[in-house]
Amino acid sequence: MKKFLVIWAILPLFSHAQLAFRLNDTIPVTQYGNTLRMPWAGGINYPQWSEVDIDNDGMKDLFMYDRSNNRVMIMLNTGGNNPNTFVFVDSLKKYFPRLGGFISLSTGWALMYDYNLDGYSDLFSVSRQNSGIIQYQGGYGVNGYTFTCVDSVINYRYGTGQTSNVLASSNLVPDFNDVDNDGDMDILSHPTTCVGTYAYYRNNIKENQYPFDSLDNYTLVTNEWGRFGLRTGGYNYVRVEHFHDSSCAEPPSPMIQWNAGDLARRDDTYSAVKTIDLDGDGDKDALIGDSQAFNLLAVYNGGDSSFADMNLQDTLFPPSQSVNKMAFTSPSYVDVDNDGKRDLLVGNNEFENRRGLSWYKNTNTDAAPIFNFQTDSLYQPDMIDVGEGATAVLADVDNDGLTDMVLGNMRSTFAFNQEKTNLTFYKNVGSTNNPSFQLVTEDFASTASLGIAGPLFPAFGDMDGDGDKDLLLGALNGVLNYFRNTSGTLNFVATNYMNIDVGNASTPQIIDVDRDGVLDLIVGEQNGIINYYRNVGTTTNPIFNAGPTSSPFGGVNVHAAWYVDGFAVPFLYDDSGDYKMLVANMEGNIQMFDNIDGNLTGTFNFVETLFSKDYGFRYGYNCSVSGADLNADNRTDVVIGLYGGGAQVYYQVDPFMAVNEIESISTFAFYPNPVTDVLNISLDKFNAKENYSLSIFNCVGQVVYTSNKVNQRMQVDVKNFSAGIYLLQLQSDKGNRCERVVVRHQ
Fold first, then answer.
1. By C-alpha distance, which of 444, 413, 321 is closest to 43?
2. Which end of the chain is more exposed for a tag (fewer CB within 10 A), N or C?
3. Which residues pair with 678 in a beta bridge?
C-alpha cells in the first residue's frame, strides 16, 4: 500500500457572516488497492510546469498552470529524490494573481522565469487584452511570496524609439529563456506575418549595461529564428518543412501594434516551442509541439548561440520512447526528482485529459540532457481525476447509512484517441463521522456505453417509493435520463424523463422543495438560471409537468459578466429548519441564497459568494457543488467538482469558533526555520485554562513528536530528526493550526 502525506498545513478557512468552510484534504481515498497520495488535488488536464521556490527554503517547488481552467497548483518540494518528493498544498495558490487574460473563455497560459536574476522566479501570462504578455516580478516578504505587476504588456523597441507589443495570445504561447547565452532573458514568440516560424526578441540589457530588472529592452531580431519553417496544414505529425531559409526573417515595416483582432488568422496554426540545449554544444535547440500533431519534434541548432541555424530534426523524440499524444504536445523542463538535473515533462494542450502527463528522466547532465521514459501518467494517478469537467455529488447511493460520492464529467480519455462520458462511484467505507472513500467502478450504471454527451450530472432520490435511490442524469442536451434502482442495480429506463427539457446542460437535484412529503426537482441550465418542477403526483408515482413550476427559480441568474454562459449548478439544503441554496456557475463562483421557504415563486435573497476565484479558489468555469453531513456534526459539508477532473471537500465549521480559533492561536510562532537542533515555539495568546497538544509529523504522516504539556514558551529538540520537511500541528479546545518546518543539519 502506498504511503501518503497528511497535510493540514495552512488549510484555507473561509469564514463569512453566515457560514465558514475549511478544506479537508485528509479524507482517505483508495483506488485499485492503493491509497491515493493526494486525492483532493483537483485533477490535471492541460498543464504547464515551471520552477519556483514558493516557500523560500532553498528548494525548487513546482508551479503548475492548467490551461483548461486557468487553475494554479503548487507542488511543494519536501526534499526527497523522486517525484513523490513533491506534494500538493492547496493554500499556496493564494499568493498568485488571477491569471488567464481578460477574455474569460480563453484558456490562458502562465510560465515562470527569473528575469532579473534576484533568485525569485517571476511570472508571465497572457495580457488582459489577449494580445500580449503581462509581467509580474516575484519576491519574498514577511507574508510569503509576492507578485508585483511591473509591465501590463511587454513591448519591444524599433526605429527611433517607437515601441510595439510582443505578440502572444491565449493560444500563442511564448518561450522565455536566455536564447543567446548572454545572461539575460530573451523571448521566442509567434510572428503574424508568417506561419510555422518563431519571432526572436533579443533582450538588450546586457549589451546596454542596464539593471536586470529594466523593462521593455527587447529588439525584434528576426521572424524566423533558427532559419527554419514548420510544415503547415492538417498533419498529425509536426516536422520541419525547410532548413536554412530566410524568406520570413525580416521584421515587417512599418511595425504594427498587434491587437486581439489580428490573431484570428494565427490561432488555428499555433504551436508550442521550448528552447533547450539538447546536445550539450552550448547553444539552444528546440522542442516543438503542434496543434494537431501527436509527436514532439526536436530541432537541432547547427549554428551557435549568437546565430541560430537549425540543420537537423528528430520527429520521434525522445529516442528512448517517442512521444505519442492525442494532439498538441506541451514540453516543460523542470527537475521533478531533486537530482539537480532538469527532466522533461510532456503534457497536452487539448484532448488528453486524464493520463497524459509523461515524465522523461534526465539520466545525463543538465547541460547535455538524455531523457529516458518513466511513465505516461505522472501525478494524475495520485489524485481523483475523472477526466475533464468533473461534477461531484454526495449521496448514500447504496443505502448503507454512509454518504458516498459519484462523479460525472464533460469527457474522459479512456485510451488513445478514445473519449467517453461516464460516472465514477466512490463508496464510503469509513464511518458516519470519519469518511473514507474507495473506488468501486468507473462505469457506474453502465453510463460509458450510452454515449450521452457531457457534462454528466447525477442526482439521486427515491423516485418510485421503493426505499432505494434512483438516478436522474443531466446532460448536455438539457433533458433528464432516468435510471430505476432494482435490487441495488441501476437500470436505464428513459432518455427524456417526463419530457423535461431545459435547453442545454441540465443539472438536476431531487429534493422536497415545498416540504409536502413528495420529492420535487430543481434543474440548473447552461444560461445560468434554475427551474423548479413541483411533483404533482405521489411518492410512488411522481408526475412532473414538462414546463417548470417556476423559472427562473427564486429569480436566480448566475450568468456572470464577460462569460458566454452561466452553467448554473444548484444545491438546495436544510440549514436548521430553513432552506438555503448554493449555486455554482461558469466563472467558478459558488453563491448562497436564502429567504426560500414560503417564497417559492418569489425572489430569493442573495447572501454572499462563498467560494470564488477572486478569493483564491482557482476552479475555473463549470465547477459544481453538492453537499451532505460527512462528519456527523449536523452541519452540511460541501464537495466541489473541478474542471480539472477532481474534487475537493470542505467541512462546514462554526464561524464563531473559526474566528476564535484564529484569534486564539494566530500568533503561534516558531523559530528558527529552517532549524538544526532546537526549535523554539511561542504562543502569545496562551490560555492556561485551555487544553493544548503539540504534534510533529514527518513527510509520510508518521508522528515523530507529541506532547500534551504545552506552555506559552517551549523548546523541542530536533537534533535526532532526519533532515527534511515536517508538519507542526498545535491543537487547542478551539481548533487547530498547522505550520511547516524544515529540519537541516550542518
1. 413
2. C
3. 717
